[in-house]
Amino acid sequence: MAGRGCGCGCGSGHLNEDNARFLLLAALIVLYLLGGAAVFSALELAHELQAKQRWEERLANFSRRHGLSRDELRDFLRHYEEAAEAGIRVDSARQRWDFTGAFYFVGTVVSTIGFGMTTPATVGGKIFLIFYGLIGCASTILFFNLFLERLITVIAYIMKSCHQRQLRSRRALPQESLKNAGRGEADSLAGWKPSVYYVMLILCVASLLISCCASAMYTSVEGWSYFDSLYFCFVAFSTIGFGDLVSSQNAQYDSQGLYRFANFVFILMGVCCIYSLFNVISILIKQSVNWILRKMDGRCRQQCQSGLSRSRRNVVMPGHVQSRCNISIETDGVMESDTDGRRPSGEMISMKDFLAANKVSLAVLQKQLSETANGCPHQASTLSRDNNEFSGGVGAFAIMNNRLAETSGDR
């Protein structure tokens, strides 16, 4: 690929494949951030300026009507801002640091939502939050990973069962011939894997269903519009947590205990589903980045081959010089023919040439020994690993990839 070293000299300064993928993804994220900033600035800046102008006019009218100076009025408003940061509101609101309010707060901490409407004000509370959040966030992320592992297992099992039923319905075999068709069906399912697009579709439907049900509840209980409720669900379930809309903050509700329990359940289920969906989308992003790198690699190879063909018209090249580019340690030596690197009998080979000729064998042997020692046998070759849409990943990404691969090959 584009990040691998080029054997013909044109790509001697190229980065390796992982670094190329990292840099390309970083560049795409920067472009994504710049585009998002431009869109939000175009949408929201005019509204902000209009709101500021209306506030200045209202402040001037109030100061003129009551005979107050602008400085006195601003000092009073600063005091109210300090009270608002401590949880004091004009309308009646529940106490933020009673047991139920504190439980809601720690839930937003360990889930990394962090709405910001409640924050510790004492030094002891801030110090305790550092250690509490360190352990709580790590434990919750572990819980999300385990939830993701089991969710992918269930989805893969259901999808494979549906695939088996489709195969049986297509054959429409009688009962006495099912035993004879069992082996053929097992062979057809041996290499079957659940499509990442189907997994993403199922997670999208589940997330949308939870969000719609939660939005209906928030609309009727909190008095928000349905669109604002959907907006709150995404902000909360994705753990962004702006804090402009926060549920369960009023002092009293009808069926208050039931509502707070339902609110907790919806947020927990929504965070788990959106967390899983983000990891599936990250697979598609990785595939897109790999596709871009393959396109770039194809152009580089064409340029290398065209450059070599022009240079070889009037030059006699040694037999051991390789005529290909972008061959990494994973494929170097595998694509070579038996004649490449062959020396006349009696010619001495240097240690450098020996290591270069055997670097693939040494690397593969070392990897196999490591996998055998760790109890993880080698399941796929290096060349086929890039074609697996569930390969690679770190953290929850790796958990989901491994679970998809395992469940697809269990039965």
UniProtKB/TrEMBL annotation:
One of its GO terms (molecular function) is outward rectifier potassium channel activity. Residues 93-151, 208-285 form the Potassium channel domain. It catalyses: K(+)(in) = K(+)(out). Gene3D superfamilies: 1.10.287.70. Its main location: membrane. Belongs to the two pore domain potassium channel (TC 1.A.1.8) family. It is a multi-pass membrane protein. The keyword Transmembrane applies. The keyword Membrane applies. It is found in: Cell membrane. This is Potassium two pore domain channel subfamily K member 13. SUPFAM superfamilies: Voltage-gated potassium channels. It comes from the Eukaryota. It comes from Rousettus aegyptiacus. The chain crosses the membrane at residues 22-46, 102-123, 129-158, 196-218, 258-278. GO terms for cellular component: monoatomic ion channel complex; plasma membrane. Keywords: Cell membrane, Ion channel, Ion transport, Membrane, Metal-binding, Potassium, Potassium channel, Potassium transport, Transmembrane, Transmembrane helix, Transport, Voltage-gated channel. GO terms for biological process: stabilization of membrane potential. Pfam families: Ion_trans_2.
